[in-house]
Structures are given as structure tokens and as C-alpha cells.
Task: inverse folding
């Protein structure tokens, strides 16, 4: 059991690492630090990941593209073959969801 837990934690860390390489093209901060990722679960046995994410606005020009960018990034992780990305709008994203690092980068602190 502990091996699975450690593997899950390690796999989750790798997924977070690649999520930090995906950027909203209008904001020079990655989607993880922006707080656009609402949920992340990995299943090492199934070699899969499930992501719940949002966008900064429903009319975001990359609404059709960004989930695919996220899926491709996550599928690049060794140990992940399948990735499901669900776009959600509740709760609506706002600047309070950004990390302190993101706020600093955008001069909001």
C-alpha cells in the first residue's frame, strides 16, 4: 500500500511540474500558479490522470485549445498514458485563486 501511495504522490508531482509549463497566452504566468487547475487525480495502476480546470473567463480565446494543451503536457509524463481534462466554470475564476508567486509576478502584491 505505501508503494502505491508514494507512486501516486510522485506521479502527481510530475504532473504538476508539467502543468507549470502550460501558460495562458494572455497572462505571463503558468496555469498552475494562476489557480486554473481545480482538481487533479492520478491513477498509477491505470496510468491515467484526470484534471478539472477552468479559464480566466468563459469567452477566453483559447477555450477550445487550452484543454488540449493540458492533455498533451500531462500525457508527456512518464507513467501517464491517458488524460481526461474537464473544463469547469464553478466556481468562477478570480484573482484570489492565484498563488502569491503569480501575484508577485503580475505586481498584484
Result:
Amino acid at each position: 500500500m505505501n508503494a502505491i501511495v508514494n507512486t501516486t504522490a510522485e506521479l502527481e508531482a510530475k504532473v504538476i511540474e508539467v502543468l507549470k509549463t502550460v501558460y495562458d497566452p494572455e497572462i505571463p504566468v503558468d496555469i498552475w500558479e494562476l489557480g486554473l487547475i481545480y482538481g487533479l487525480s492520478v491513477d498509477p495502476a491505470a496510468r491515467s490522470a484526470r484534471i478539472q480546470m477552468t479559464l480566466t473567463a468563459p469567452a477566453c480565446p483559447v477555450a477550445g485549445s487550452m484543454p488540449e494543451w493540458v492533455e498533451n503536457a500531462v500525457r508527456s509524463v512518464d507513467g501517464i498514458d491517458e488524460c481526461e481534462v474537464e473544463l469547469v466554470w464553478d466556481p468562477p475564476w478570480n484573482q484570489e485563486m492565484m498563488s502569491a508567486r503569480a501575484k508577485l509576478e503580475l505586481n498584484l502584491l
About this structure: DSSP finds four helices and three strands in the chain. Strands lie at 37-43, 48-53, 82-87.
